[in-house]
């Protein structure tokens, strides 16, 4: 079981779900309230702007989180030597 703070749908839970799917293992996430001490400084949402990379000329499509994790697990972590 993985226990996380925050809300359902935040990047951490999406990453955990994608990793579980890639390794074909069930995932159980338990959400707990964020501690009040850090509530005002906690970053709930992360989204990078692709404007600069597009302006630099990159025109390829990006992977979704799920396909990127699946590719990484299959092509690197699942190899006998994940460093090649």
Keywords for this structure?
84 residues; 3 helices; alpha+beta; single chain; 36% helix; two-stranded parallel sheet
How is this structure best described in words?
- This protein is α+β, with helices and mostly antiparallel strands and 84 residues long.
- The chain has one domain (2-77).
- 36% of the residues lie in helices and 10% in strands.
- Helix 1 links the parallel strand 1 and strand 2 (29-32).
- The model has no long low-confidence stretch (mean pLDDT 81).
What is this entry, summarized?
The chain is α+β, with helices and mostly antiparallel strands and 84 residues long.
Gyration radius, to the nearest Å?
16 Å
Order of helix and strand elements from N to C terminus: EHEHH
Residues in β-strands, percent: 5-15%
DSSP summary, beta strand count:
2
End-to-end separation in angstroms reads 31 Å
Low-confidence stretches: none
Question: Can you tell me the number of structural domains?
Answer: 1
Morphology = flat
Main pleated sheet: 2 strands, parallel
Strand order of the largest sheet: 1-2
| Mean residue pLDDT | 81
Helix and strand composition category: alpha+beta
Question: Into which percent range does the helicity of residues fall?
Answer: 25-40%
Number of helices, where a helix is a run of at least 4 consecutive DSSP H or I residues: 3
